[in-house]
Amino acid sequence: MTPAVSPEDAWTRFAMSVFKVNGLIIRAGEGITNPIGQSSARWQVLGRAYEPTTVAKMAQDIGHARQSVQRIADILAAEGLIAYEDNPTDRRARLVELTPDGAEVLAKIYRRQVEWSLRTMEQLSPTQLAQIADGLEGIARVLESSLDIDGEGNRPSCDGSESLKKKQPKKRRFENG
């Protein structure tokens, strides 16, 4: 018989609380964005395009796969809400920028978000919220450093044993036939 798993350690409680809050924020984001034909995911991309950046940087900032952010960015570009521009520092990674129509949509989203947050903040302490934000930023720094790539494509394993190797493409040997 397998024992029931119910970790009671501080890290698990913290992580589960963050997951719950994240889910609730996304649900709130859907409620904010859906009435104007957008989604929480699209809002995240529009919000990151406020200043020109690459899709890869956006994905890193919001913790999503580059491919999923690329898919959303391509849809937003087709709708004329963002535009791809040449990147003076990297020809392969174009910059994503808001268009005037995108800025208008983002402004509508932010107006709705401010209305929602004012109602929500009636039940929360701004000081306590700022302290929690500071704590989360500190935890993010610790996590980022623990996941830091060692320059050879390796990352630490979760159990502290050896690092997990980045998969290398198989080399093919061509034989004269």
Descriptive terms for the model:
3-stranded antiparallel sheet
Describe the fold and architecture.
With 177 residues, the protein is mainly alpha-helical. The chain has a domain of 88 residues: Winged helix-like DNA-binding domain superfamily/Winged helix DNA-binding domain (Arc Repressor Mutant, subunit A, Orthogonal Bundle). The chain has 6 helices and 3 strands. The protein has a 3-stranded antiparallel beta sheet. The chain is globular, with a radius of gyration of 21 Å. The C terminus is likely disordered.
Strand order of the largest sheet: 1-3-2
Query: Overall mean pLDDT score?
Result: 85
Helix/strand-derived class?
A: mainly alpha
Highest CATH level, the class of the domain at 41-128: Mainly Alpha
The appropriate CATH architecture of the domain at 41-128 is: Orthogonal Bundle
Report the sheet with the most strands, covering strand number, pairing sense and barrel closure.
3 strands, antiparallel
Radius of gyration: 21 Å
Strand content: 5-15%
CATH superfamily of the domain at 41-128: Winged helix-like DNA-binding domain superfamily/Winged helix DNA-binding domain
Oligomer: single chain
- At CATH level 3, the topology of the domain at 41-128 is Arc Repressor Mutant, subunit A
Distance between the termini: 58 Å
Bulk shape: globular
SSE pattern: HHEHHEEHH
User: Could you estimate the helical fraction of the residues in percent?
Assistant: 40-55%
Q: What ranges have pLDDT less than 50 throughout 5 or more consecutive residues?
A: 167-177
